[in-house]
Automatic annotation (TrEMBL):
<comment type="similarity">
    <text>Belongs to the ammonia transporter channel (TC 1.A.11.2) family.</text>
</comment>
<protein>
    <submittedName>
        <fullName>Ammonium transporter</fullName>
    </submittedName>
</protein>
<feature type="domain" description="EAL">
    <location>
        <begin position="24"/>
        <end position="274"/>
    </location>
</feature>
Length: 288
């Protein structure tokens, strides 16, 4: 096929380039057609609300079904799309698709969408979000935008004004991956977050590092004092779940609750063992 020939030729003449650079170029080229060829898909991962014991929201996570390479993780292609600017149309597609899926397939649930700092830097971003919401007919309060600390560092005043104006339309704002960036506690009081998502590295470490217990407790208390919802990411087993519930987290997300899946197969109800644990039955104590 002409396109792959072109690519091979292109590579031959770029011998000086490192492998990593070459890989990026190839991905960047392939990204050009990915939207029009419908190679992107959104997966949805459930979030368990501990107070009600039910799944009340989903995080939309993009997947790229590459025609030759199969599924490529966002961790690999999002950085490429960010540096090439392709994240702008991709981000629009994500927002549009997530809102339509929310309307068609996830009634009553909230939908969380990840936003790259590059999208946020685009002057049209807030209007684009408002337009997508209007087009979808989904109430703004059902949409949550997940942002990371990097975005706040770049242009503090601008970030604050955009987030404030989005919040006025009813959109919720979550601080994603809390604790791993250049975290500053000042951000928590200065920015109008509705939700803090504790990064999964803290949950993973829990068994091996008692300091992380203290950190989780502190974040939970701080978040409560600031009226924010605390979500723990990366909940992988019953021990994680019981610990985080006892710590006072509001919501849990992780493979143990449900892996990210296409809309048709994403988990809608909590598994029976989880429901039992939430009702106060600890595993193995059911008297059998
Ligand atoms: P994130 O927003 O922090 O999303 C959570 C990541 O953790 C997801 O990886 C999810 O699959 C993974 N995860 C969830 N539960 C568990 C668990 O129990 N154990 C482990 N080991 N991992 C778990 P994924 O889907 O590969 O996405 C990686 C990152 O790519 C996301 O991190 C987000 O920063 C970015 N991303 C994903 N979709 C989008 C998108 O539509 N737009 C933008 N801008 N970024 C996206
Ligand atoms: Mg996220
Ligand atoms: Mg995260
Ligand atoms: Mg992340």
């Amino acid at each position: 096929e002409a396109k792959s020939n072109g690519r091979a030729t292109y590579c031959m003449f770029q011998e000086g380039m490192g492998d990593a650079v070459r890989q990026r170029r190839l991905l960047e080229e392939d990204l050009h057609d990915a939207i029009s060829e419908q190679q992107f898909e959104l997966y949805y991962q459930p979030r368990l609300d501990l107070a009600s014991g039910s799944i009340t929201s989903y995080e939309a996570l993009i997947r790229w079904n590459h025609p030759e390479r199969g599924i490529i993780s966002p961790a690999e292609f999002i950085p490429v799309a960010e540096s090439s600017g392709q994240i702008i149309p991709i981000g629009k597609w994500v927002l549009h698709t997530a809102l339509n899926d929310a309307r068609e397939h996830l009634p009553d649930a909230r939908i969380s969408v990840n936003v790259s700092p590059v999208q946020f830097r685009d002057n049209d971003f807030a209007d684009e979000v408002r337009r997508s919401i209007e087009d979808s007919g989904v109430p703004a309060k059902r949409l949550e935008l997940e942002i990371t600390e990097n975005l706040l560092i770049e242009d503090d005043a601008r970030a604050l004004s955009i987030l404030t104006s989005l919040k006025q339309t009813g959109v919720k704002i979550a601080l994603d991956d809390f604790g791993v960036g250049y975290s500053s506690l000042g951000y928590l009081s200065r920015f109008p977050f509705d939700t803090i998502k504790i990064d999964r590295s803290f949950i993973k470490d829990r068994g091996y590092n008692t300091n992380t217990h203290a950190i989780i407790d502190t974040v939970v208390r701080l978040g409560k004092a600031l009226n924010m919802t605390i979500v723990a990411e990366g909940v992988e087993d019953m021990a994680n779940l019981l610990f985080l519930k006892a710590s006072g987290c509001d919501e849990l997300q992780g493979y143990f609750i449900g892996k990210p899946k296409p809309i048709a197969t994403t988990v809608r109800r909590v598994a029976p063992d989880i429901a039992l644990a939430l009702a106060g039955h600890t595993p193995g104590s059911d008297g059998n």
